[in-house]
Amino acid sequence: MTEQSPNVTDAVSPDAHEQKIAKFKKEQAEKYLLQMERHLKRISSLHLYGSNVEEVNEYKTDSYFSSWFKDAENGDIHAMHSILDHFEPLQIITNMGHNYRSRFANNSAEIILDFRPGTLIPNKSYSLEDAKLKIKLLEEDEKEQVIKSYLYSTILRIAKELMLFFPLQKISFSVNCKTLKMRARTFQITKSQVSDFADHAINEKLLPFFEDKILVN
């Protein structure tokens, strides 16, 4: 039996092999960076998603639920909580690990928000240098900015949902956040301000705009 010699064209030179490995590592690093970028963008743009006017109007005109919404418009607190329990517009808030308590009165609401950023906030930053993934610990001020963007977007998402479902003109938030050393920090947001934040241009300056217009103390 004649032994067949391996085809030299099937062989990979050491240099080519290293290039393939380097390319694979770079692609994996780029993929991971993209995932991190999307994650950070997602948690700081919660208010751009969720319920919309057309969807909620369908609920309000539904033959079964219309009476609930009419009672809610007349200030029936029980009806408001029934609507929240059934449609769960704020389920994403609790699913992300936060807790809130609500009180409604006179076209306004008060929300006590226990904000818990938890593991959704990275402790490290990532960059690509010479086709290699570079990792460094986030500085405290950098981490604080990420958490604040997440918090402010969460507040806006809650306000947006509640104002879509109920005839509210103003919502006051009392925020507790151990990570940011916040205790009963007050934020007050109006319906017109929520509409302003639907503009993507404003969201490019989310932190300064929010703190200038909405932060009370």
Q: What's the layout of helices and strands?
A:
Elements: H1 14-43, H2 53-61, H3 66-73, H4 77-87, H5 91-95, E1 99-105, E2 108-114, E3 124-129, E4 132-137, H6 140-165, E5 170-177, E6 182-190, H7 191-196, H8 200-203, H9 206-213
Parallel strand pairs: 2-5
Antiparallel strand pairs: 1-2, 3-4, 5-6
List key phrases describing it.
single chain, 217 residues, 4-stranded mixed beta sheet, elongated, alpha+beta, two-stranded antiparallel ribbon, 49% helix
Walkthrough of the structure:
The protein is built from 9 helices and 6 strands. With 217 residues, the chain is of the alpha+beta class. It folds into 2 domains: 17-51 and 92-213, no CATH class; 60-88, no CATH class. Strands 1-2-5-6 form a 4-stranded mixed sheet. The protein has a two-stranded antiparallel ribbon with strand order 3-4. Strand 1 (99-105) and strand 2 form a beta hairpin. The protein starts with 13 loop residues before the first helix and ends with a helix. Mean pLDDT is 85; it is low at 8-12.
